[in-house]
Amino acid sequence: MNEGIVAEMPAWLQSLLHSDWALVVLFGVFVLEGAMLMYFVPSELIVPGSLALLGHSLETLLPVLGVAVLGATVGQLALFFVAERAGREYLLQKRWFRVSEDALTRFDGWFDRWGAPAVAGSNAMLFTRGMLTVPAGLAKMDPKRFVALSALGTLVFESALAGLYVFGVDLLW
């Protein structure tokens, strides 16, 4: 754990970071991120930020990656089912769904063009994470296949972020 950063935090937050609940809280954060409900924190900062606070040893890195992949996949699956059952117009009318109709149409085109593998590809790229969740749900893609591809893309993305963080920390120190 990065004791310098943590020492400046309130005692209750320090206690949380040192507890078994830290990964549970991180799981919740990733569920919200996967469901596209967390607009106040860039998803690209969650894993590196977690590693900065919790440490980047292998004993910390693997659980953080596991929680990231599981949480984001659960969140995306929830959004997938909302899209599948409620439909495009329902989502576009909701304030919490901050994807414009034009952007959704563009991602529908990606899904139509490249099919299910585009789910993994989009989850592995900056700025497109999760964007094919809704088109996959609207297309009534097999949920098991969606979960596998979503998790694969998230694993690639979060592993790359973790690797960049660990490599960067090792370079600086």
UniProtKB/TrEMBL annotation:
It comes from the Archaea. It is found in: Cell membrane. It is a multi-pass membrane protein. Residues 58-156 form the VTT domain. InterPro entries: DedA_domain (IPR051311), VTT_dom (IPR032816). The chain crosses the membrane at residues 21-41, 61-83, 146-167. Keywords: Cell membrane, Membrane, Transmembrane, Transmembrane helix. GO terms for cellular component: plasma membrane. Its main location: membrane. This is SNARE associated golgi protein. It comes from Halolamina pelagica.
